[in-house]
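Aim 2, interim progress: modelling of the adenosine-5'-triphosphate-bound target.
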Amino acid sequence: MSEPILDVRDLSVSLVGSGPPIGAVDRVNLTIGRGEVFGLVGESGCGKSLCALAIAGLLRQPMQVTGGQIMLGATDLATIPQRQMRRMRGDDVSMIFQEPMTALNPLMTVGDQIGEMFVLHRGLSRRAARKKAIEALDQVRVSSPERRINAYPHQLSGGMRQRVMIAIALACDPKLLIADEPTTALDVTIQAEIVELVLELCRAKGTAVMMISHDLGLVARICNRVAVMYAGQIVEERASAEIFNHPSHPYTRGLVDALPRLGRRLERGQRRLTEIAGVVPALHEFPEGCRFAARCPRVTSECTAASVPVTQLDGGGIVRCLHHV
Ligand SMILES: Nc1ncnc2c1ncn2[C@@H]1O[C@H](COP(=O)(O)OP(=O)(O)OP(=O)(O)O)[C@@H](O)[C@H]1O
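Predicted structure of the complex, ligand included:
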């Protein structure tokens, strides 16, 4: 891997309320190289978004970072004050979300929202920022950018809004872009265009990407390395070709088997491809031993006796399973 830009060590996020804290993300380790495209996958509710929000300094009560370090270069994002984090967000690390409307201000034109990045982070005048906003809109392939900068978010299509959010996120050339399911809410035809756009712009700017998705197929195709998350823990992390072709953890195997492939047909009465039976446990239901045990085809009594340590794999990477292949 190239020089690391992000080094997350033993990150824990917990729900902190009136009772004892409830762990949601459990000692997660992640390293992303400069300009690398890194994937984080897992079903809904595995803790991917909480990891992302923790890194971007956007966790909200009752969720809190309760342990570990988030090193972006020499700065530990887990401990810096909110004011410093606000400065670094946009400048060093940016995030785009599944639903752009949650991040865009409905009362401001898209031009003002993009321009604000240049005013706040680069100290440009309003007039100079407006010019840069037009260039940024052009870069994300919004046609007639001089006209479109005067539009409000609700006047644009979902795909256009996502492009605006990408323009805002990349305006100040951050070192890391976290993309949390950026295409899930979009029409299938636009999804590939948006992913390509993100990759192309980040490649040109040397920005590393952390792509979060429930779609292992997408992530394996575009990422150098992939981490698979289950019930708040990383259960496997390897080069994406390895993960895709020789999944080591039974959960990863299940995700691969659930992918649609050319020539595979649904059996009569089967609604989806081989889904992993069962559901991700809720936070207060995490079991003592392996968290995947209740759904695992390889489970034995050892799996539920004590928590499962991480094993280094011969070809590089890690897996958290007593019966990995
Ligand atoms: N503010 C909150 N209060 C209570 N529980 C929460 C909160 N935010 C997240 N959780 C719980 O934490 C767990 C992890 O959630 P998270 O959103 O990180 O999952 P995810 O893998 O990103 O799923 P998705 O793809 O659906 O966003 C889930 O069980 C979720 O219900």
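The chain has a mean pLDDT of 93. Residues 220 and 244 are 6 Å apart (CA to CA).
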